[in-house]
Request: fold
Amino acid sequence: MSATNVIAQQLGNGDLLRDKCFIGGKWRPSRSGKMFRVDNPATGDQVGEVPDCGPEDVQEAIEVAGRAFREWRERPATDRAEVLRTWARLMHECQGDLARLMTLEQGKPLQEAMGEVSYAAQFIEWFAEEGKRAYGDVIPAPVRGQHIVVLRQPIGVTAAITPWNFPAAMITRKAGAAIACGCPMIVKPAEATPLTALALARLGELAGLPEGVLSVVTALKPEPIGRALTDSPVVRALSFTGSTEVGRKLMAQCATHLAKVSLELGGNAPFIVFEDADLDAAVTGAMASKFRNTGQTCVCVNRFLVQEKVHDAFVEQLREAMAVLTVGNGLDEGVQQAALIDRNALMKVQAHVSDALAGGATVELGGKVHELGGTYFQPTLLTGVKPSMQCVREETFGPVSAVMKFATEAEAIRIANDSEYGLAAYFYSRDLHRVWRVAEQLETGIVGVNEGIISTPVAPFGGVKASGIGREGSRYGLDEYLELKYLCMGGAQGG
Ligand code: SIN
Reply:
């Protein structure tokens, strides 16, 4: 029996393990017939195989999406909501199988994968409702008898290029909003995690999404797919989550047809602990933010800034909490930290730790590849870290807590803002005046105040500076897929 058949048998719903792409409502191989394998980061074993699509497959997806748009946009939002709600319900019903598939291809602990499936379904539920409220506006006219009306209309065919760290939620956060507004979406999932995307497409098909409203084009090399999407004048909006470098390129490509872009890019989140903080709460928040998805989220803490007076106490409490983290295969009971996605990820973490040590930082815990080998890295705590170090300047994307000391509030804000990125920031303080002062001065799109987990479908997720453009989730998330049209209705004639 092939490895893929074994996995299919392990999933209660083997139907969710797909080996075809989903284009224009059809499950089919790539036009070239090429495939690529998907491996489990925890073991290196093959989990599945999917089509390696090219620009010709994208072209077909765009054509069908263009036709689908004409019908889907005309459906009442309440009808679209009905289909979306069914899609979300199916995700909840298949939560266990989807989570298992996600852990197999992405590595994250099963409990976290279960949480992500629920998070992903919540985006669909949220936008099913929010799509009904894509209200326009009536503006008092400056001329007697005139009427000014603003409509919010679906933008057209849309595309999404999504990352491996959240194989389900980063798709539904985009597709939920687009589809609720009346826009078809073509999704290119990350090459490391296409299986979850295809499983979601299967559930979307079962929920009744019409042909071409959702396509999933899998490919090993993202560049030609991105190029084909941005070369087409039919694709009117592109949403990307991933690195700043790729985001810049896609934005430049979108300039050709002036397609709208929304970019959720790298972060470098500071986590500031002021001397008036509740230290227990700060450590709880730090653990939740830093070690979610083994440190592989754009909003994970990247640098800890701790005020001198509480530095040693905070470090000791954090060390104790980190020392008991269970590292292992994400499928095993009780595992909290899993394998990193691939060898490049591991090498980056190693390089950041080596650079910090060479610059005089101290290892309080960990610091090495985990004894399990592969791409496992020990939960690592570094102190004496300096602003010039790689682990402070760049996103480490791994289980490393890098701690710096500061003296004054002004210094903490200066260090926190000394980054080209501006996605999330966190701080802990019990002083109300300080809370407002600091929250207003941090140059990020998201601020966690005495809170380490800020992700929710109801709030606008997104960054400033090199962390991106646009917002996802919340009522603002619809704006990426809507155009404003202003009607100027002339003054009364006759009557
Ligand atoms: C991300 O890492 O890109 C998203 C994380 C989240 O939604 O919390």
User: Anything to note?
Assistant: The chain has a mean pLDDT of 97. The two ends are 81 Å apart (CA to CA).
